[in-house]
Specification:
alpha/beta, four-stranded antiparallel beta sheet, about 250 residues, Rossmann fold
C-alpha cells in the first residue's frame, strides 16, 4: 500500500452494454507517485483513467480521492474535476479563445479567482511549460506539441491534487512528443501525483514509480519499471513488450 493514498480504486467494474471493460480493478496511487498504465488497445486503460474523475461512471466498486468517495454530480463534481486535472489525447482547447483565456477560464469560473490574478497565474504556468510567448495566439496557430503544453498548463492552473493523462502524445507528430514528455518529466520530478496512460515506454522507464499493465479489463501486473521491463511475470506482458519494444 502507498504510504499516503490519494487515489484508491476498490473492486471497480464498468460495462458498456455486454462488454465488461473494467473487471474488479483495484489500484492505489500514493501522493507524489507517478503511475504509468500500459497495455494493448481495448484493455481498459483509458476507461480506468476517465473513471477516476468521473468522466465515466462505474457500475460497482468504489473510487476514493483523498479518502472521500467521488461525488455524483453538480458543484461537487466540478470541484473534483478541478482537483483531478485531465489532459486528453486531443487537446480540447477552446478554438475561439486565446491561449491565455483558455488557461484562465477555469480559474475564474471554478476557483473564483479575479481575472487579473488568473491571468498572472496563467502566464507563470505558460512560462513553466515553455509557451509563454504564445499567450495571445489562438490554439489553431500553435503546433500540436504547443497545444498539448497549453492543455497541461490549463490543468495545472486549477492547483490539482493529481493529474490524469490519457495518451497525451498519441495525436502528436514524433518530433513534438518529447517536448510534451519533458514537461511531464519535470512535473514528476516536482512531486505531482500522476496517472499516465501512454505508449511511451521510455517515459514509463524514466519517470514512473510504478508500471501498471492491463489486459482484458484487469490489472495483470503492478510493479516498478525496473522489475516490469527486465522481467515481466505474465505471458500477456511478455507478448506485449516483445511487440512494442521492437518498434
Amino acid at each position: 500500500m502507498a504510504v499516503d493514498p490519494l487515489i484508491e480504486l476498490r473492486d471497480v467494474n464498468k460495462y458498456y452494454g455486454e462488454l465488461h471493460v473494467l473487471r474488479d480493478v483495484g489500484l492505489t496511487v500514493g501522493k507524489g507517485e507517478v503511475v504509468v498504465v500500459i497495455g494493448p488497445s481495448g484493455s481498459g486503460k483509458s476507461t480506468l483513467c476517465r473513471a477516476i474523475n468521473r468522466l465515466e461512471t462505474i457500475q460497482s466498486g468504489t473510487i476514493l480521492l483523498d479518502g472521500r468517495p467521488l461525488p455524483a454530480e453538480g458543484k461537487a463534481l466540478a470541484r473534483l474535476r478541478a482537483e483531478v486535472g485531465m489532459v486528453f489525447q486531443s487537446f480540447n482547447l477552446f478554438a475561439h479563445k486565446t491561449v491565455l483565456q483558455n488557461v484562465s477560464l477555469g480559474q475564474v469560473k471554478v476557483r473564483g479567482r479575479g481575472k487579473a490574478e488568473a491571468d498572472r497565474r496563467s502566464r507563470e504556468l505558460l512560462e513553466r511549460v515553455g509557451v509563454a510567448d504564445q499567450a495571445d495566439k489562438f490554439p489553431a496557430q500553435l503546433s500540436g506539441g504547443q497545444q498539448q503544453r497549453v492543455a497541461i498548463a490549463r490543468a495545472l492552473a486549477m492547483d490539482p491534487k493529481a493529474l490524469l493523462f490519457d495518451e497525451p502524445t498519441s495525436a502528436l507528430d514524433p518530433e513534438m512528443i518529447n517536448e510534451v514528455l519533458e514537461v511531464m518529466r519535470q512535473l514528476a520530478r516536482e512531486g505531482m501525483t500522476m496517472v499516465v496512460v501512454t505508449h511511451e515506454m521510455g517515459f514509463a522507464r524514466s519517470a514512473a514509480n510504478r508500471v501498471v499493465f492491463m489486459a482484458d479489463g484487469r490489472i495483470v501486473e503492478d510493479r516498478s519499471p525496473q522489475e516490469f521491463f527486465s522481467d515481466p511475470r505474465s505471458e500477456r506482458a511478455r507478448d506485449f513488450l516483445s511487440k512494442i519494444l521492437k518498434h
